[in-house]
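A favour, since you know our structure tokens better than I do. Just paste the record in under my message, thanks.
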Amino acid sequence: MANYLGNAISRRELLRLSAAGVAGASMSGWLGVLANHAVRAAETPARKKACILLWMDGGPSHHDTFDPKPDAPADVRGELKAINTSVPGIQITEKFPRFAGHMQHAAILRSMTSDEPDHGRARVFVHTGYKPGVGGVRYPSLGSTVSAELGDPKFPLPNFVVTGTAMEKATFLTDAGYRGPSHVPLALNSPSQGLENLRPLVPADDFDDRAGVLDQLEQGFARTSRSAAATAHATTFRRALELMRSDKAKAFDLALEPAASRAPYGASPFGQGCLLARRLVEAGVSFVELYLGSWDSHAKESADKASNLMTQVDEGMAALVADLKERGLLDTTLVIWMGEFGRTPRINGKGGRDHWSKAWTSMLVGGGIKGGQAIGKSDRTGAEVAERPIAIKDFMASVCQVLGIDHARKVETPGGRPIRIVDEGAQPIRELIG
């Protein structure tokens, strides 16, 4: 009977029914009801996975975040102490006490490595999985790839949203590459402001009439002027109309969130961005990227600023993971914490750390991964990978695998050139799959 009922009723629930006097001879009367529940559950499509990328722009120090070196010399160790987490044997720095309690859901990747220590090139490399300029191709960011592979083209909300403060010049965030204008993200400069000016300034009927006329003009122009710019403009117009007409746009309004569930995220823009990300994936958005800048800590002043950012990240990220877990969304939502590289092992003469891409750390949470582990290892000073190197393309292939995307699939560009989603030779991190 247990095999027949599948997930409709557990052994524990069956025992509860027995204790209540429902089982036994009367149980036969429940079989039809339970079987119908099982059929309906089987017919309900599984929720597609979503991804939230918490992007730490500028390169956070792995020593000062999730790969502390408590036994290293002082000029390597730094001022921050290592603390225990919910997983025995895994320590992180004292700036993340809240998140330490959620480590059972996370996999820390302590052996990330690349040969791109330049901000601009590294940002593109980490976002696309391809080095900039290779083959003369504009490669899509991870968000655009997820939008194209997992997003619903008929969904009224954008399948890809980016938000955060001071991100106006971060063009790498919004480049869909060969995926085209349909997968360019909606960019919000402030998570708390949401989408402004969505309400038409004229009555609904008048607005629909005007939109219809404009649509006819757009179609006529597209027939006579087939260009990428015309296609992009028409796509933007159509998406804006769909969003204006959809009730789901309320997901962008943080004021609608109950105070009790909003409070744990804190008042910082980053915390509010985490809350917005949760609301959006809950509404059905496939990919949300939250930008947090000012991690480029070459001197004591900038290092102190980065240290203050860690408190915001701890509060917002811990609340996000707890909230997703409570709402039953954590197993279907992959949260990524990362930047473009790490920082130098030794603190420099200015009291900061410089760029370092030979060994650094990123982290994955939820999404069905095997959590509670640290994968790979850097050496005693965090200068070199000591065990299990993870290249950028391996990381990208792993994310794709977790989300259910075939990373080896070839996509045809507008010019007719087939290109792999992730570069050839990529090896997904096998330890992530439970």
Summary: The first helix runs from residue 2 to 5. Residues 2-43 form one domain.
